[in-house]
Amino acid sequence: MDKITKVIVVTPLKLRDGDFGALAKKIGDFLVSKSLVSGKASFVQETDSAILGGFKAKVGSIVLDLSLSGKIEKEIWSK
Amino acid sequence: MEKLGIDPFLLGVQIINFIILFVILKKVLYKPILKAMKSREEKLAGVETAMGELARKQEVFESTKEKVLKAARSDANNIVNAARLEAQKIKNEATEEGNKKARALIAKGQGELDRQAKLVERKVKESSKKLSQEVINHVLARVLDDKTRLKSIALVAKELKS
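The joint structure predicted for all components is written out below.
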């Protein structure tokens, strides 16, 4: 039996199911290509307006931060 | 002589008396007096000799005293000079030591100041960055509408694919 990996996707606003499904598929493909997920994955949507734009994907202790607030933070703190 | 009223017998007796008196006086009076005078002269000579000896001894004493005083003054001067040199040396060493400690303290203080300055600078930079981040986030939170946020999600997802 394949192990199901839980992936939490954080977005700045709640997406419609269709949009979230399309986004989850893209994230899933990326995670598989990076060997971060093997087998099946279940996606859970969370909203956090503080991330401003983009999204975050949490897989266990790994956080894929592609949010706008994350980019701003990286930009500011890298200097 | 009789015509002159001089009795030869009496004259002879007088002469004899004179001779006897002379002999007696010489023996009883002159000799002790001369002896006493001689003794006194000898004593005076002894005193003069002693005085001369004392004067010579005093000269020697004065000379020795002067030499001793001179030597003592010289020794004292040498001791004072040596003490001055030693005091100067100690003063120089103490000054050098003090300067060394002062320089070390200044260097330490300077190092501490530099460290504090760097710490403050780092904290100011951190505060500045946090403030910048908060301001940007606050402004963007007010500026971005739902449509733009959705668009940003789509863009990021597209980059993820590529």
